[in-house]
């Protein structure tokens, strides 16, 4: 049967999920946005409020509430479900809670459409992308994390201001972890046709690069401290990644995906299109940047190993509880037998 609808499912309709849905309605790229959230009152309210934004006539995009099972059949499943950072909290401290949510999401979505593209937004995004790829059973190219695409957009914004050009005339990448070990690939930056030093002579002054790196790394924490979440930047970034995918746009962006040599998911530039990661884009890093990349991967591998250990311990505990239950049932039935004999 020909397919008439393109659908994007958003799991989690809190601050980020609802902002993404709103962005998809205003810049329609799909015929249906499906929202899923266990907070049913919030879900219904978001669907009604967002629905009101679809009646202005400029969008054919419909919004509705759905189940995890339905979401598993969408063209793109965006995962924003999970706890968010509190003021001063690191992204990594969310891992245990959000990994459990991720596991429950995949068991509720099964069997997932084998052509679905997964876009991970929830934090810590690199680690969740790594586990989503295992839990979903989808090919690696179909599992993408937003990674450092937001950090890179922030970097382009800062450089654009300094160079007095539009951000889209700048090629600049924050790579590695969407977190504290991220780094800027300074050696690869170009502004129009010019290298950084030529376009912004002040870039060779002491402190220039450190100040920008500190700002890019800490931007989210500063916004969260003031308003409790970041939503517009990531909503926009996630919507444009959905567009690159559905329109097979082949745009190059730094996103988190599995790196076989580094044995973890982290952000490097990739060509993004209808099948997800079409291919990794080669990037030539200088010696320092290469070291930063390896340090970053080592840190992520350590966190993955810790999480795997926790998952194994959870499994052992679940089996022990199950055995206890069975033992309990057996004792009850034997007691009943003895009772009846008496
Ligand atoms: N990658 C990035 O650049 C980036 C940027 C901003 C926020 N984030 C992350 O996105 C996540 C969401 O942030 P937020 O501000 O929207 O949080 P939020 O608390 O406002 O919303 C999260 C929603 O997920 C829902 N949820 C929980 N379990 C679910 C399940 N099993 N299925 C469906 N929905 C479920 C919750 O009920 C809640 O409504 C956080 O982890 C945050 O750190 C990532």
UniProtKB/TrEMBL annotation:
Enzyme class, broadest EC rank: oxidoreductase
GO MF assignments: L-lactate dehydrogenase (NAD+) activity
Residue positions of the active site: 178
Catalyzed reactions per annotation: (S)-lactate + NAD(+) = pyruvate + NADH + H(+)
InterPro entries: L-lactate/malate_DH, L-lactate_DH_AS, Lactate/malate_DH_C, Lactate/malate_DH_N, Lactate_DH/Glyco_Ohase_4_C, NAD(P)-bd_dom_sf
UniProt superkingdom: Eukaryota
Residues the record lists as binding NAD(+): 12-17, 37, 98, 121-123
Pathway it works in: Fermentation; pyruvate fermentation to lactate; (S)-lactate from pyruvate: step 1/1
Keyword RNA-binding among UniProt keywords: no
Keyword hit for Oxidoreductase: yes
Name the record gives this protein: L-lactate dehydrogenase
Lineage, broadest ranks: Eukaryota, Fungi, Dikarya, Ascomycota, Pezizomycotina
